[in-house]
Amino acid sequence: MPEKVIKDTDNNMKKAVEAFKGELSKIRTGKASPTLLDGIFVEYYSVKTPLNQVSTISTPEPRLIVIQPWDKSVLGEIEKEILKANIGLTPSNDGNVIRLAVPPLTEERRHEIVKTLKKLAEDSRVSIRQIRREAIDRLKALKKDGKLPEDDEERLEREMQKATDKEIAEIDQLLEKKEKEILEL
């Protein structure tokens, strides 16, 4: 039973870190990246479909994203959805492809992004600590029910603290890397 608590805790912490990585990939750094368009869905034959499933998305230049739909009739819909997504990019439609020029970031905007990054990182750290807290509560309940000796409870709590520290360190490392990337552009 305690093994399940440890395994669940470990999985949940890893999911929290993965969620943080996902959030980082959506943040615009001034470089063109197809991940900026993740989360954009277009109406395609009456079905909301991810943009990357109705087109080829490429970055031929560091500050340019090119979207080439497989069906040209969906160009207007793609353009509309990009504007609606409010990602700070204005589509240019030439009838065959849509081009998105990624403008360079201003110094002020860079600092705003870093501030947002730090908040996301702190939210992730809080989430990991909450996962640890819930696991410790589960262990205490097991001990109370007589299913876990006191020595094991203390050892498992220390293990959980180590796992927590490891995941938080990974978040800090990811934050530092992204922050450096944004401020150096």
TrEMBL record:
> What does UniProt give as GO cellular component?
cytoplasm
| A Pfam family | RRF
List the subcellular locations: Cytoplasm
- Provide a GO biological process annotation: translational termination
Q: Which GO terms describe its molecular function?
A: ribosomal large subunit binding
At the top level of its lineage, which domain of life is listed? Bacteria
Q: Which InterPro entries has this protein been placed in?
A: Ribosome_recyc_fac (IPR002661), Ribosome_recyc_fac_dom (IPR023584), RRF_sf (IPR036191)
- Keyword annotations for this protein? Cytoplasm, Protein biosynthesis
Domain Ribosome recycling factor, chain residue ranges per copy: 20-183
> What HAMAP family does the entry give?
RRF (MF_00040)
Instruction: Report the protein's function.
Output: Responsible for the release of ribosomes from messenger RNA at the termination of protein biosynthesis. May increase the efficiency of translation by recycling ribosomes from one round of translation to another.
So what family is this one in? Belongs to the RRF family.
Its recorded name reads: Ribosome-recycling factor
Q: Which organism is it from?
A: candidate division WOR-3 bacterium
Recorded name of the encoding gene: frr
